[in-house]
């Protein structure tokens, strides 16, 4: 960067952090810090909740991945990644059913009541891993607009961004997160519009919207993966599911549906940045938004960086608030060491600080941000039968464990390359991922129903013997 570029980018980062801190509200009690209520105890409004869900799930890594896939496969790649956002309405509807049918106040409450405390602990471990990954995978994307991995500018920007986000998260917890999400949503939409204003006129619109093929080896395999993971992926992300319990059931459901549809459209639109790169022969180099921004000039690159900072900030502050709730509220309740009374704000603040430090360690080691999504989504495939078919049982711990641990095992085997080649569906880049998710869903479902079938057969045998 030259002096002008450095002043613009670093200046915006500092101004962004200062403005978010000044505007974010301060939580005066634990109910506000952990549950997002205002000082009088009123829940989050519908449109604030909608904006929060919309922007907090548009991670910096997500829009980068969408653009990269657009560069690799055209609109097919963009649609594939955008399809993950359709899981938000799915999650909202299932949480609506859980709340209205079981009266559960959280997913942990629900799992404990149906599948036992050990099931809830396994689930808690899965979501903590997910939250841990959210820290580095978002700060690394921001750092990429200031320098390359290995350069001090890269790490310095990522850590400064972490500090700013942590500061206003400590100030207000979930209430601050939701409030700033509304601001970040408007900023995100405005600058995405500015990016499109530069990109669309530079291309033939028809070519921009039709480039790509719906073939398994041209990105369609990833689209099928996204549709399969739709029923499991959202449930291991408390950034999303925590918001399913902060308002009335119908208000929550409306917010989830609208936010999911808006998210699908927004992510697909941003994937056109990658399609532009594909049409114009711009080498993405793992970061299509930055490559396109550099090709279009300083203004475009600055717009891209603003989009990344706002999307990363909305996710990171939500991650901090979810970590605080998971470790300060949910886990102690599972361990029977806490009652309904919420812990002090100080406990949650300490947790945020610890994870702000530890969560960035993988960034220094170097990692693939796309794998943070696809691999973790595969490892939790066993959650799909648990949440889809819970109505078939009142109490069945083995149903959870046979489904959940089978999915986790398959995800680990995929990650270390031990799945047989015969499992692949098609010959595309995601052929093995598709095969594991397709066959894995069937195997996990069989595992879920096995204890129920065995119990029913045992009951019939017992009845026959008594007769």
Description:
The chain has 467 residues and is mainly alpha-helical. It has one domain: Amino acid/polyamine transporter I (Up-down Bundle). The protein is 74% helix and 0% strand. The radius of gyration is 22 Å and the shape is globular. Keywords: Cell membrane, Ion transport, Membrane, Sodium, Sodium transport, Symport, Transmembrane, Transmembrane helix, Transport. The chain crosses the membrane at residues 6-23, 72-95, 115-132, 152-170, 182-202, 214-235, 256-277, 297-324, 345-363, 369-390, 402-423, 429-453. Pfam families: SSF. GO terms for molecular function: symporter activity. This is Sodium:solute symporter.
Features:
Amino acid/polyamine transporter I, 21 helices, mainly alpha, 467 residues, single chain
Chain-wise SSE layout:
Layout: H1 3-23, H2 30-35, H3 46-56, H4 60-73, H5 75-82, H6 87-102, H7 107-115, H8 117-143, H9 152-199, H10 205-210, H11 220-229, H12 238-241, H13 249-279, H14 288-296, H15 298-334, H16 345-358, H17 361-365, H18 371-379, H19 383-388, H20 397-415, H21 431-466
Helix pairs in contact: 1-9, 1-15, 3-9, 3-13, 4-5, 4-13, 4-15, 5-11, 5-13, 6-13, 7-8, 8-9, 8-15, 9-13, 9-15, 9-16, 11-21, 13-14, 14-15, 15-16, 18-20, 20-21
């Amino acid at each position: 960067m030259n002096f002008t570029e450095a002043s613009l980018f670093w200046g915006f980062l500092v101004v962004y952090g200062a403005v978010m801190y000044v505007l974010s509200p301060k939580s005066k009690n634990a109910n506000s810090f952990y549950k997002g209520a205002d000082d009088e105890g009123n829940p989050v409004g519908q449109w604030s909740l909608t904006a929060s869900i919309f922007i907090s799930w548009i991670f910096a890594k997500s829009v980068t991945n969408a653009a990269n896939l657009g560069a690799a496969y055209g609109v097919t790649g963009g649609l594939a990644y955008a399809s993950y956002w359709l899981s938000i309405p799915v999650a909202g509807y299932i949480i609506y059913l859980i709340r209205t049918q079981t009266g559960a106040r959280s997913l942990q409450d629900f799992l404990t009541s149906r599948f036992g405390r050990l099931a809830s602990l396994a689930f808690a471990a899965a979501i903590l891993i997910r939250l841990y990954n959210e820290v580095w995978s978002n700060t690394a994307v921001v750092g990429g607009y200031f320098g390359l991995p290995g350069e001090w500018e890269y790490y310095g920007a990522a850590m400064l961004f972490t500090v700013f986000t942590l500061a206003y998260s400590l100030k207000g917890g979930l209430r601050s997160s939701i409030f700033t999400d509304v601001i970040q949503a408007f900023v995100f939409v405005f600058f995405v519009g500015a990016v499109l204003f530069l990109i669309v006129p530079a291309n033939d619109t028809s070519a921009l919207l039709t480039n790509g093929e719906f073939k398994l080896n041209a990105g369609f395999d990833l689209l099928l993966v996204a549709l399969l993971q739709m029923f499991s992926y959202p449930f291991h992300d408390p950034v999303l599911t925590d918001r399913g319990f902060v308002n009335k059931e119908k208000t929550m459901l409306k917010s989830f549906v609208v936010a999911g549809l808006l998210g699908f459209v927004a992510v697909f639109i941003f994937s056109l940045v990658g399609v532009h790169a594909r049409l114009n022969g711009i080498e993405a180099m793992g970061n299509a938004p930055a490559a396109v921004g550099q090709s279009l000039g300083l203004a475009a690159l600055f717009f891209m960086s603003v989009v990344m900072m706002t999307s990363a900030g909305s996710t990171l502050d939500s991650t901090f608030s979810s970590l605080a709730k998971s470790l300060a509220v949910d886990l102690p309740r599972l361990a029977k060491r806490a009652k309904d009374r919420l812990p002090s704000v100080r406990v949650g603040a300490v947790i945020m600080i610890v994870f702000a430090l530890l969560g960035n360690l993988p960034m220094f080691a170097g990692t693939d941000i796309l794998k943070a999504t696809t691999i973790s989504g595969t490892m939790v495939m066993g959650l799909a039968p648990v949440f889809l078919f819970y109505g078939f049982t009142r109490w069945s711990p083995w149903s959870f464990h046979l489904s959940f641990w089978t999915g986790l095992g398959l995800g680990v085997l995929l990650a270390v390359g031990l799945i047989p080649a015969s499992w692949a569906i098609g010959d595309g880049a995601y052929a093995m991922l598709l095969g594991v998710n397709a066959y894995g869903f069937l195997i996990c479902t069989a595992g879920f129903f096995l204890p129920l079938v065995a119990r029913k057969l045992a009951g019939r045998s017992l009845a026959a013997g008594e007769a």
